[in-house]
């Protein structure tokens, strides 16, 4: 069996059995589930998953690892060779309403989460091992909010399930990891607030592009001038000296709606 991870693919093979157990428990699996696993490697997580669910779809970029896994004759396992980002581009329904359980390469995290959260039919539940620092950013609250946290929290409820030390992987990475759970995934936040997601994130990106400045400054261009930005902040009940990281998700919803009211945008 091939066990040597490839650094070029960001591979860190999972060693600790308790991490596998924690991932599976957080996913709340049932015998009728279809689970998508990203980067299964040598199958340390794949095999226990296959024993608990109806069907496992494992997407593996490394051809040799994919062939080895497919050759293990796990009856309810489907192995797809390819980069998960390319697979999702051409087969977006692969995740629709399903559960995702995976130990993913760190470099995938932000792009993968964005695709999963913004999918027309998103996954039901997502459980991943990711870099601990990134997990902590995702679950941040004011006054330490950030663009990644807001991008995830607008679509899902994130929770850190457990910290995972570096020695639970081979080779051990330079940083610790964490298991993160994303549940209640939907676009309800935008629907209930009557917000266009694209404009919402345009405002956020402008604000966090100058996160050390008072919010009125980066918002002026989008709002149609400083006075309109000030008016929107006032109408939202916010101090004009406030900074982007100090606002909660709900406060951002109110502010973006006020910017729309006071601007010339349709």
The CA-CA distance between the termini, in Å, is 59 Å
> Strands across the major sheet, in which order?
4-3-2-5-6-9-7
This entry's quaternary arrangement is single chain
Shape: elongated
**Classification by helices and strands:** alpha/beta
Main β sheet profile = 7 strands, mixed
Q: Compute the number of strand runs.
A: 9
Order of helices and strands: EHEHEHEHEHEHHEEEHHHHH
Question: Uncertain segments of ≥5 residues (pLDDT<50)?
Answer: 5-10
Give a description of the structure:
Strand 3, helix 3 and strand 4 form a beta-alpha-beta unit. The radius of gyration is 21 Å and the shape is elongated. The chain has 12 helices and 9 strands. It has helices spanning 17-27, 46-50, 63-70, 84-90, 109-118, 132-138, 147-153, 188-193, 197-208, 216-223, 226-235, 249-262, and strands at 13-14, 34-38, 55-60, 77-81, 99-103, 125-131, 157-164, 169-170, 177-183. Helix content is 39%, strand content 18%. It has 266 residues and is of the alpha/beta class.
